[in-house]
Amino acid sequence: MSGSKKWVLGLIVLAFIVPLLRPVFPEVVSDYRLFLVSTMIIASIAVLGLNLLTGFNGQFSLGHGAFYAVGAYTAAILMDKLNVPYWATIPAAAIVCFIVGYLFGLPALKLEGHYLALATFALALAVPQILKYKWLEGLTGGVQGIVLMKPEVPFGLPLSEDQWLYYFCLIVMIVLFWAAANLLNSRSGRAMMAIRDQYMAADTMGIDTALYKTVTFGISAAYTGIAGALSASAIAFVAPDSFGIFLSIKFLIGLVVGGIGSLLGSVLGGIFYVLVDNSAQSLTQFIRNDLGLPFDLSAYTVFGVLLIAIIYLMPMGIAGGLYMAYRKLRGARA
Known about the structure:
The longest helix has 28 residues, at about 265-290. The chain is mainly alpha-helical. It has one domain (about 5-245). The protein is built from 14 helices and 2 strands. Helix 2 packs across helix 12. Keywords: Cell membrane, Membrane, Transmembrane, Transmembrane helix. This is Branched-chain amino acid ABC transporter permease. Its main location: membrane. It is a multi-pass membrane protein.
């Protein structure tokens, strides 16, 4: 087993053990913090979906918040209207979002660069409005959305709802990242990256670029849709206004900050996105109350400042910066 695989396995084991230490460290391993980590896991899966499309296939998207919304509403409607178990909504959301992404990818074949970005931007703008449409209110709940119940702990396990949700999200994340790693190391993954690196050369070598681009769009949408389905179960509520255009932009910021074209970057990007989103209000209160400065910082302000700083200091993202630091440290030791 290589050193990197040992590190990954060690982190997975640690992630499973930490919640069990709650009786020893009740304040550190609280339900709120486990819920926060669960949202980081969900965001990491969503960023991974965008990474597969943009980082590994070279197609630029500003509309992955739409696929996130489709996945969330697929899960919510199945649970609310048909009493489908929450775990069964995950594959259903993946299938629905794959179909939507594949169908959207077909006309997108004729678009490149900023034209594709504008098309996906339009999709992200349209989906929340479609969810509010009065003819769909009986299904989507309209502006009010759908209120759900949090997943119950199965098999009588001695866990809280947030502990079980954390484990459920963690298991889904491990499976999805394992599948993505295997995909990228396969012949299909090499074809995806060949299209990203040199489209004309890949086409000349006999790679079916149209097929790979549409399938990649579908797989990317499926990953993001699964994240949306998990968020519906975690938050127990979906509403159209939760899936505005800024959600797609946050996914993109998380991808750039974490590291484009890196599986580790997807995890770091998801953590960054949730931490900044949740700490902006606390930072504003600290500046106004403790420092006495008349400033209000929104999450977008903090996102912007940190994004500029990280791009300046680490142009390849946090994952790339860590890799370069590791190489320098290894060279210094040698």
